[in-house]
Amino acid sequence: MQEQYDYIIIGGGVVGCMVARWLSRYEGKILLIDKAADIGMGVSSANTAIVHAGYDPLPGTLKAYMNVKANSMWDQLAGELNFPFERRGDYVVAIGDEELPLVEKLMQQGKQNGVPGMVMLSGAEVRRREKNINPEVSGALWASTGGICDPFQVTIAAAENAVMNGVTILLETAFEDFIMQGKRIIGIKTNRGDFLSRWVINSAGLYSDEVMHKAGIRPEFKITPRKGEYFIFDRAEITIDNVLFPVPSAKGKGILVTTTLHENTIIGPNANEIEDKEDTSTTKAGLDEVAAGALKLVPSLNLRYSIANFAGIRPTGNAPCKTPGINYKSDFIIEIPDEVEGFVNLGGIESPGLTSAPAIAAEVVDMLRDAGEKLVEKKEWDPIRPARPRFRNMSHKDRQLLVNMDPRYGQVICRCENITEGEIIAEIHSPVPARTYDAIKRRTWLGTGRCQGGFDMPRVVNILSRELGISPLEVTKRGKGSEFLFRETKEVEE
Amino acid sequence: MALKNIYDVVVVGSGPGGVAAAIEAKKNGADDVLIIERDYELGGILVQCIHNGFGLELLKEDLPGPAYAQHFIEEMLSLGVEALLNTMVLDITPNRHLFVSSKEHGYVEIEARAIVLAMGCRERTRPQIRIPGMRPNGVFTAGTAQRWVNVEGYMPAKDVVILGSGDIGMIMARRLTFEGAKVERVLEIQSYLSGLSRNLVQCLQDYNIPLQLNHTVKRIMGKNRVEAVEAVQVDEKWNFIPGTEEIIPCDTLLLSVGLIPENELSRKAGVKLDPITGGPYVDETFQTNVPGIFAAGNVVHVYDLVDWVSEAGFEAGKRAAQYAISLRNAEARYIPLKAGKNVRYVVPHKLDKSSLAQEDIRLQMRVTRPIEQPVWIEVHDGENLITRKAEKYVRPGEMVTVVLKTKNYSDVSKANSLTIDINPR
Amino acid sequence: MAEEVNLICTACPQGCTLTAVIENGEVIEVRGYNCKKGIDYGVAEMTNPRRMVATTVKVKNGFHPLLPVYTERPVPKPLITQILDEIRKVEVTAPVKMKSVIVENVLGTGVNVLASRDMPAKQ
Fold first, then answer.
1. Contact, A296 vs A289, CB < 8 A?
2. Contact C12/B56, CB-based, under 8 Å?
3. Residue A467 CB contacts under 8 Å (≥ 6 apart), including other chains
4. What percent of chain A has pLDDT over 90?
5. Could you tell me the maximum CA-CA distance found in chain C, to the nearest angstrom?
6. Which residue range is the domain that position B153 belongs to?
7. What's the CATH number where A322 sits?
8. Closest in C56, C57, C88 to A492, CB measured
């Protein structure tokens, strides 16, 4: 017997998880699948973590509409889902007089898009506010509604809230094909068997083109992966309080400098088209490009204090903007196509996709309602996802209370980030359980400091082994094939 | 073991530097000495350094790391040093309060008259040397691999390339070979060996493990687990030389690219760090810029030999004890002045007894309620009356004074506290 | 004809660069040493090279799964692989005291293999 669902969501990135959370408000059986060992492992796992104000997308595009609409949703969302979010504001900085007109143009664009709270600042004012800025700054656009989040936390919080409200999540479950009945989609085939559903929602990120092609939709649509590389810096070397963007170029919003919610300065990304959707490798040339871009904004940045590099991939699509008269070739796809029935199609959700995710989720609900879904609200729906204790951020007094309550919070496992055994165990037994080292790392920020896990790794492997009831040999970094250990020291192969 | 609120000397870290400091602190007269270890046993990194070569200078014996550690740990414990295991020091204030966390004792604040920082050092990691490529599992520091192989009992590697010719890297090359792994080669970006020459002989050459100087890793390949690394030759400015690239299939890349003193805590205590060593600026007694906070061993700068770490610890421990004792003596000179019968408060609140030897000291106070008849203002140490003064009456609105004379010094010097009572005559 | 061989002394961490002069298969001179150990090392290295060996053995019921062990004196270099094979066969039961003999006279070398530390029993 195949399981019958009302809605199946393909892809557990921030968009898929947000859609699951929004749909979990209504009656119906919901399944979210992801091919990876954890949610949020694709595009959502590596990006700049910025909640954009909305001056950047071209007026008239879906990107512009979703961005500005979603930006105002984030305060309530952060409150309900209990993830850290700061509306720090951001600057687009002009270096030298020739860049100034570009910033002014952004200001105009922002006004057209309906972005509130923007101001043009003089070079002198920017220098006064940001001590480390390149002294050749000629002016900046200040957007007070720009925000910063931790995309892992956002994705996980949304997924947990969805699960609390009855959504099923299946990991290491890869979409293979649709099950069709005439022109109606009635289910999907996966590596773990078939699942039937009245509706299937494509939120497959980098693979959204391949998924929609299987349904026969938009054969001309193609995702071009664009890689962006980053540096993270040691927390003790903070130089920046706000988000500093350069003026944008054809390649995107450019290499920015900011400080994450974890207080590490971050620089990046560059933007280079690549062939392989899985190629998250960093390159020397790419890292050099990022360094040069960041140094243009903040000349005093010392690369010696870098503690991590990574690369993320943006799923750039080629869908034309539907608004007449707007010539734009890589807009979001948010639609219920006419060609098949039972299919919600989301594609090309690159930046500002993280920002737009809550608005996209709300849009999916509206589209389903327009398509005739009754969407009866559940009485027991709970919008609140409770926060779990974060030892590192607590006062001495609160730490005392926490450790008194549960001594496992007194045992520090990650010495750089001060992550405790109590926190790790809580994540392993959370609504979307952390079952790999990286899953714990992304949820707690363990192993991200100066020693990059050198000290905690053997200890976390032991905790995972104990809590999951598996051998240390079976513990992985991020799913099958990424085990840490090959055999016992004394069990020698002949 | 119950924790005390105040210790003469608290040592942070039980590696060779910390243990040596605790030993000498105790031998030099510190009463309560506490050593705090974050791991579940004493010894620090020596626990996993099972190879020989320790103790030649201090013990005239060629010992493995655990034996060297145990020698000094036994001495330390026999001297009566208290030890906390599984305990992390999370914060130190400049006035030497430590916030420590453990399952056993919870989250507590401890005061120390002197502190010896002995947190040791940590290994440099991949991003610090910026190796591009994928981020699969199987890139470990040599020390992490050492912990797994020697202590936890698991092999994190079968087919290995080692980047960096530091001592731990070379020692792990031999160790992994002993346990059946294949070490393809050791790559060193510099034109010379970074560890000890003896390790080149007895860890690499003895087992035909090739060392390539002027070589580094250009990129790491593999999605989930390391599948290969691309090695490349470099010129004297460390630029890659095109055409020298070579793909070496392997499942593990071990890094032995240097050690950095570990000073997060030192920073929190306001200790100034030398950007060259990465450790605190210290004087000849290993005292940092913060009075009473000393540092010893690899937390100051990275040593070649454990014996020298122990020697640094001995010195720092001795000096910490001296500091603590002088502070304790200074504390003992002070006695509190207590408001007794019908006295609301006394100023000064405490008294440096030695200053009474030099000059008279006037005590000022106010009474709790009026007494409209002749009274005695009496200063006593709980048993003996030291001095007294007559007044016709006392009223809260009018300040009362009494003077301790230098002739009272011999009585006061024996007192632990002074109390002032006002009684009707 | 005298032949010169360059060596690095491993007797202590100084790592002196030695030159052994060999004539008719015998070491007639060692140069470059900073202490007497260098002469002994130079001669031994050319005639009967020896090394300290340190490894681990399995422990039953131990505080750790492995007990580190070491040869109390250097053993002949060509025998190291066989010695490791011998030691690998051993399994001890906790508690074990430091310097207790784990393998006596390993491979007839006259050298005992000792425990590198106390290994208490599992709590």
1. no
2. yes
3. A425, A428, A429
4. 84
5. 65
6. 125-257
7. 3.50.50.60
8. C88
Residue B145 to chain A, least CA–CA distance (Å): 9
User: Choosing among A465, A490, A493, which should be mutated to test the C contact, i.e. which has the most C CBs within 10 A?
Assistant: A490
Interface check B182 vs A, CB under 8 A: no
The tokens for A210 are 């391949």
Given strand A50-51, what is the order of strands in its sheet?
A50-51, A147-149, A85-86
Asked, for residue A486, whether it belongs to a domain, the answer is no
Neighbours of C109 (CB within 10 A): 17
Least CA distance to C7: which residue of chain B?
A: B201
Quote the CA–CA distance of A461 and A456 in Å, as a whole number: 8
- So which residues of A are the catalytic ones? 52
CA angle at A478 for the pair A474 and A480, rounded to the nearest 5° = 50
Say yes or no: B77 and B116 in one domain: yes
Domains contained in chain A, number = 3
Name which of B109, B224, B255 to mutate to probe chain A: the one with the most chain A Cβ atoms within 10 A of its Cβ. B224
Q: Give the dihedral of Cα atoms B316, B321, B324, B330; nearest 10 deg.
A: -130
**What letter does residue B104 receive in the DSSP assignment?**
T
Is C76 an interface residue toward B (CB < 8 Å)? no
Task: Give the model's pLDDT for residue B322.
Answer: 98
The answer, yes or no, to whether residue A493 has pLDDT greater than 60, is: no
Domain assignment of residue B1, yes or no = no
CA distances from A490 to A461, B149, B306, C59, C117 (A): 19, 9, 28, 11, 19
Is C100 inside any structural domain? yes
Dihedral, CA atoms, A451, A457, A463, A464, nearest 10 degrees? 120
Cα distance between residue B173 and residue B150, in whole Å:
13
Are B309 and B192 in the same domain?
A: no
The full length of chain A comes to: 494
**Domain final residue pick, B314, B331, B348:** B331
Q: Say which CATH number the domain at C94 has.
A: 3.10.530.10
Residue that has been written with the tokens 């990304």 in this structure: A269
Mean pLDDT of A22-28: 98
Shared domain for B65 and B78, answered yes or no, is: yes
Residues 6+ apart with CB under 8 A from B242: none
Beta bridge partners of A306: A233
Which CATH number goes with the domain that contains B152? Answer: 3.50.50.60
Tens-digit pLDDT profile for residues A428-473: 999 999 999 999 999 999 988 777 888 899 999 999 999 999 999 9
Same domain, A41 and A180: yes
Q: What is the pLDDT of residues A259-294, one digit of tens each?
A: 888 888 899 999 999 999 999 999 989 999 999 999
ipTM: 0.93
Residues of A in contact with C56 (CB under 8 A): 489-490
pTM here? Answer: 0.91
Between positions 381 and 440 of A, the ones with CB within 8 A of B are: 396, 399-400, 402-404, 407-408, 410-412, 415-416, 418, 420
Residues A398 and A452 in one domain: yes
Residue B303 sits in the same domain as residue B375: no
Residue A443: give the domain boundaries: 391-474
Beta-ladder partners of A265: A259
A373: left (phi over 0), alpha (psi -120 to 50) or beta: beta
Rounded to 5 degrees, what are φ and ψ at A342? 80, 30
Give one DSSP letter per residue of A42-69, joined into a string. Answer: SGGGSS--EE--SSSSPTTSHHHHHHHH
**Token duo for residue A288:** 């050099």
Give the span between the Cα atoms of B264 and B156, in whole angstroms: 29
Q: Is C59 found in the same domain as C27? A: no
Which chains have at least 3 CB atom pairs separated by less than 8 Å from chain C? A, B
Distances (CA, A) of A32 to A5, A155, B151: 10, 13, 41
Q: What is the dihedral of CA A330, A331, A332, A336, to 10 degrees?
A: -110
Residues B210 and B163 in one domain: yes
Q: Which domain holds residue C78?
A: 54-115
